[in-house]
Amino acid sequence: MKYGGVGGGDIKLTAALGFCFGLNALAAILFFALLLACIYVVATRQRSIPLAVFLCIGFFICAGVLFIYGLTC
């Protein structure tokens, strides 16, 4: 959530995650990533943050939930 727009790397990472894991998993990954990013922005009051870090964290949360419950998307 860079001030002025999303960077090119964020778009490429999101496209790669969507291609590899499908739209259902991508929706969950984006939900977790943006939720954590919003919490981080409120807590630190920064105007510019790297979204790719939160996309990776969102992926690991989604993968952990799927692994624990034995689900597939």
UniProtKB/TrEMBL annotation:
<keyword id="KW-1133">Transmembrane helix</keyword>
<feature type="transmembrane region" description="Helical">
    <location>
        <begin position="49"/>
        <end position="71"/>
    </location>
</feature>
<dbReference type="GO" id="GO:0016020">
    <property type="term" value="C:membrane"/>
</dbReference>
<feature type="transmembrane region" description="Helical">
    <location>
        <begin position="15"/>
        <end position="42"/>
    </location>
</feature>
<dbReference type="GO" id="GO:0004190">
    <property type="term" value="F:aspartic-type endopeptidase activity"/>
</dbReference>
<dbReference type="InterPro" id="IPR000045">
    <property type="entry name" value="Prepilin_IV_endopep_pep"/>
</dbReference>
<protein>
    <submittedName>
        <fullName>Type IV leader peptidase family protein</fullName>
    </submittedName>
</protein>
<dbReference type="Pfam" id="PF01478">
    <property type="entry name" value="Peptidase_A24"/>
</dbReference>
<keyword id="KW-0812">Transmembrane</keyword>
<keyword id="KW-0472">Membrane</keyword>
<feature type="domain" description="Prepilin type IV endopeptidase peptidase">
    <location>
        <begin position="2"/>
        <end position="42"/>
    </location>
</feature>
